[in-house]
Amino acid sequence: MIIDLSGPWQAALDPEGTGEHERWYQPDALPAATELQLPGSVQEQRLGDPVSLDTQWTGLVVDRSFFTDERYAPYRGPGEVSVPFWLQPHTYYRGAAWFQRSIEIPDDWAGRRVVLHLERVHWESTVWLGNRRIGSERSLTTPHRFDLGPIQPGRHTLTLRVDNRTVVDVGPNAHSISDHTQGNWNGAIGALRLEAVAAVAIRSATVVPDLKNRSARVKIDIHSDSRGVGQGTVTVSARRFNVPGEHLVPAVVAEFDDEREADLTERGMIGGSQHLDLDLPLGDDAQTWDEFHPALYELTAELGGQTFTTVFGLREVGTEGTRITVNGRPTFIRGTLESCVFPLTGYPATDVEAWRRIIRINRAHGLNLLRFHSWCPPEAAFRAADEEGFYFQVEGPIWANQGAGIGQGRPVDAYLYEETDRILREFGNHPSFIAMAHGNEPYGRDEEFLGAWVAHCRKRDPRRLYTSAAGWPAIPENDFDNIPDPRTYRWGEELAARYNSRSPETETDYSAWVQANPRPIVSHEIGQWCVYPDFAEMAKYTGLMQPKNYGIFAEFLRQNGMADQAEEFLFASGRLQLLCYKEEIEAALRTPGFGGFHLLGVSDFPGQGTALVGALDAFWDEKRYSSAAAWARFCGPTVPLARLPKRVWSTDEQLTFDVRIAHFGAVPLEAEVAWRLTFSTGSGTGETVAEGLVGKGTVAVGNGEIFGSVALAAGFNLRTRRLKLLVQVTEAGGQVYENDWDLWFFAPAAALATSVLETSNVQEALEQAQRGATVLLTAAPGTVETDVVTGFSTVFWNTAWTKNQAPHTLGITHEVSHPVFRHFPSEGHTDWQWWELLHGAQAMLLEGLPTGLQPIVQPIDTWFSARRLGALFEVRVGAGRLMVCSLNLTPVVPGDPVTGQFRQALLEYLTGDDLAPAVRVEPEVIAGLFQR
Q1: 605 CA to centre of own chain
Q2: Is the confidence at residue 754, as pLDDT, over 90?
Q3: Which of 746, 779, 794 finishes a domain?
Q4: What's the pTM?
Q5: DSSP code per residue over 562-590
Q6: Which single residue of 95, 472, 656, 725 has CA 20 to 30 Å from 28?
């Protein structure tokens, strides 16, 4: 028996917090009331204030240059404020808000207890029925429920007060409350209803699967609002659904008799409870739940004509050594973050289809888990994941850092336990809920405090794995460690990180970490590789959140004369981003015994300075340089892997590689594994250069064995060109899994007699050019006048939040039709063959050069600066022609052919008929690029 409360409510804001003292809960007492729709928020319905410089944001602004830097002056004016550090709501409000409406209680509810159910409230709610104050709730993770007691039939006034100020210091950047992500919304969303409850009713049913015995232990709590629960019968049954072949589980009947009822009555006590445990056999043909076969059971418990339903799966998650297991089978966690990013509404979706879409997009990218960073999703997310066969790591609403802390006796300590118990009680039956952390990256006495918390959780509900926190600490109580090691870039590594310090290969793995750790490792927030903003995305923001940050970045680009390169920067940086993610994921997949990873992330994070780290945007839509199909080649249940000692070869070298298959499917495969080398045409393949069979046989579940090795004799390829190595796994049933790697082969550089002057002496270069010479000016290390630090990788997270950690560039772009690239294969963006050239390269600031000058090789500056940079350009100086190169032309790795090949390509161009610089520059302008 339910009354839906969705629809119009009267609403009023109470920024000074005087409403309770002034008795706004009385009928028709809200001052200046406005009609507003619930479910919803006051901000999305434009009840609140415009953003100003005085807006009291919830969340830290690490880079505060917005408030002082002259570049941002146009965005700080009254009525014109645009912030660069996150998406900006068109309306902001922080404080108490009141909602009021009349309700009609029907006659047949007489004598029944009435419960008010508010699915998701942000944050603290207080309820009045007429003049009677019912109470307050403050959960950020589960529904707020208020027992209104028996209500006389007829019309009554129901009043709700919601306060979205910081009730408990869970950390200003926690995604449960922060403006970095969902926004600090105020209101109530999801289901809003009144329920008439029987005097004696089932309050909850906890279902504990027993995989070995193909049964489930059902733990039922019965509640009474009178003196004890008396005697009764509970009938429990179940039906299997969500997979072919529905199955009805025979009912089990249990009787209860509350012997305490007489004693309670004598002592004048009211309210009672009873607990029943019973075993529900599911049958020998019971089907298990996992990512490959999400068989679900709907359990129904009947008592006195009322029913209680819940959904569960026959699923057990555990560990075996350093592996995570689901139903006893080794499982590799391929996760990404869900950080509560909902730009249209500013609050999370509460409908199943919205979550089904998100889950299916992630599955299409080969992922199998969402980690909910410092927040817990609504019921609809769990339902969608159950049905789709997808895993969740849920967290408490806490990121106790940046001023907050745990284990120090603060209110957040008790609040964590409150929220944990609520989450486990509300969502614990869902089979998709396989892991839980207390929250993210704690500060304080975290090891001691969280060791007790993990023990508490495991004792209370052993149906999932627990870890202290996402990030740290790695403590003995953990079932698995969710730590930021290992990964290719750790905070503060800058140019010492793997991509920027070590020449490219595909052999690196994390075996040393596995061998040193007694528990499974799921690496924390790997990736974080940035891409340039896609300004076409701005048109999607038709709701509460506005991309004012994108507008600022687009204007910076326009001011520096590069607005026409926005698309070029997007695609060039995007290709580098994918390259970084591919190798990062493959390094984890080729590590025997490794537990898995959490990406940060496959989708953009719009806060913390604007972290455009996704191949998907904030709406989970594909960016135009990427596709799910391409991503799933290197991220999925079955991924072929090639272990290559390097990416760049001389044509007179022997090519060798090993083949490993990361197979974490439902069953072992009977398959044929083959390889092929083809001429690469960029997005596709051309002629086959060589091919062969790696082997045939069983591909076991796991990734611990080399399936085969391949060696090609020197001389199989005699030309300078890019080749694509393809490894293909073909199942006996015809299913094919493919993965590929680009390789570069350079013929030995020929001796080239030229009249070109090569020098790193700036004065000499300018003097000779003015006299008519053709000059190649190469920048000696540390001689360029610049504060831009380049590396091979793209920007990590973003330069604003990381306090300008290097590298500061998002790769390079170049026009492939330029004659320089006739003898140096490239596709217009950074790729592995550029590693030596970019190692130690310097970005020249071209702001003083004519706007018509287009660099041949152009580093892409971070969008916060959008400066015009160059690493290779050509000009006329006096009567001569000058090419300026700040790329590295000195071999980093002995015998590496790249720098020699690139130097030869430059000299052949400089001595050829195509050399015709279009822009003339005065010598002092060139000299100004270098330190004096």
Answers
A1: 7
A2: no
A3: 746
A4: 0.97
A5: -GGGHHHHHHHHHHHHHHHHHHHHHHHHT
A6: 95
